[in-house]
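task queued by scheduler; priority normal; single chain, no ligands, no partner chains; default sampling; output format set to structure tokens
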Amino acid sequence: MGEFDLIQRYFKSQSHPSADAVPVGIGDDCAVINPTPGMQWLVSSDMLVEGRHFLSTVAPERLGHKALAVNLSDLAACGATPRAFTLALSLPRVDETFLSGFARGLFALAQAHDIALVGGDTTAGPLNICITVMGEVPRGQALLRSGARVGDDVYVSGQTLGDARLALEVFRGQASLASAAEFEQVRRAMECPQPRAQLGLALRGVAHSAIDVSDGLLGDLGHILKASGVGARLDVDALPRSAVLAGQDLALQREYGLAGGDDYELVFTAPSDAAGRAAVAAAAAASGTPVQRIGAIEAEPGLRLHDAAGLALSAAAFSSFDHFKTP
């Protein structure tokens, strides 16, 4: 099967963009996209490299899902409505079983979020996936990292922070679980993250700042603090965790929750007054996404951690993921 047959069979034939929004999609030198009047476009790219971002044992359908999910998570963090995406795919060979499963997972998520594949590239080489997403927000309403204000509450979404890291450590032989069902639960968290798109939309006009948790809560929150010129105080025992993670040693629970990475939840800041907290609760309810208040923004730079008893912990003991450090 040649390159263009591959594109036609697995990608072009399954992409059905709106003719109004995308008058020209896959099949020309460039896609042609009509922006919605009054909107600003947001663009983000994420690359997944085998052995660095995913294991060779992952099912192709889950890999297709995750490749798009991690990009949709960036749009969610900015409060953007997904519109279109491109796919650049490097393959060591044409494997029709792999391509069928990958495309199935990719397009199932694309359809769920009403986002169209509009172009990209394929080539021979090591397995590598790069997706670029495009979304839109009303002018001036994008959630950014730079808006946190002193006195804001700090929140994180979801109920399973740290499960993806736990699954990775089970694969590495550094952690064990009581049952196959527990392993499947945390493995699914690692391989099938759910982008918090509806929560991101609901937080527009409510949150002051936001970011998605991809490299670890502390590292990603640190980007907000740096961009906003503020500090924060966090209660490490307020972090949401699953029953599976809660069965691990407390030190590991804290490490995986604070610095595990691959969670793709949203961490955001919002006003701490009664009206602000009510608005956050309403956004969580409207989006069907649980959120947990875990700390507060402070004027003093830096990040200060404490446990449920108020005892201070060292933030330096937790290191988030870095692409150019040995995993």
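post-processing summary
- The radius of gyration is 20 Å.
- The first strand starts at residue 39 and ends at 49.
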